[in-house]
Write a structure and sequence with these properties.
Layout lengths: L2 H33 L5 H34 L1
Helix pairs in contact: 1-2
Length: 75
């Protein structure tokens, strides 16, 4: 496998993880918006913390994909 093919495979993997994290984030935010009055406070806080980390993961994945694309340009 050449270096450019390896970078392309890494980009494809990280894109999938990026979109999965976005889907998780949107789902959690929607769940919190619809259930904030009826759910346990601990569960709501846990979902908020997980949403925060999912958002941070989205940003990190975006930066990594961007870096891999620039690396692919230079190969």
């Amino acid at each position: 496998m050449s270096e450019s093919e390896s970078i392309k495979a890494n980009i494809a993997f990280h894109e999938k993880m990026f979109f999965a994290a976005i889907a998780t984030l949107i789902t959690l935010l929607g769940w919190m918006a619809s259930n904030y009055t009826t759910t346990n406070k601990l569960l709501l806080v846990s979902a908020l913390v997980i949403s925060f980390f999912a958002g941070a993961y989205v940003v990190l994945q975006y930066r990594l994909i961007k870096r891999l694309i620039l690396e692919l340009k230079n190969v």
